Amino acid sequence: MHSPALTVKQKNFEQLCNDHIEKLVVFDLGSHPDKVGKLVGIENDQIELINAKGKNISMNMNHVKAFQVPE
């Protein structure tokens, strides 16, 4: 069970991601090539990306440590 504070942080992070749908994003400082790509969406705590090779990537948003949107 999630604590109330964690739930609020998750919702804020989800809202932040939703503001950047269809944009290039970098998760966890690009530590892995599959953590850089076009943000497709978030559903059920799963982040959906398309990487530079066109591969669909899914990651659990609870495992993300950092989030950037290059200008």
Describe the 3D structure:
There is one protein chain. The protein is an alpha+beta fold. The protein has a single domain, classed as SH3 type barrels. The chain has one helix and five strands; from the N terminus they run H-E-E-E-E-E. It is globular.
Main sheet: strands, sense, barrel: 5 strands, antiparallel
| Order of the strands making up the biggest sheet | 4-3-2-1-5
Low-confidence stretches: 2-6
Helical element count?
1
Q: Structural class of the secondary structure composition?
A: alpha+beta
Mean pLDDT: 86
CATH class: Mainly Beta
DSSP strand (E) fraction? 25-35%
Quickly count the domains. Answer: 1
Considering the chains and any ligands shown, give keywords for the structure.
71 residues; SH3 type barrels; 5 strands; disordered N terminus
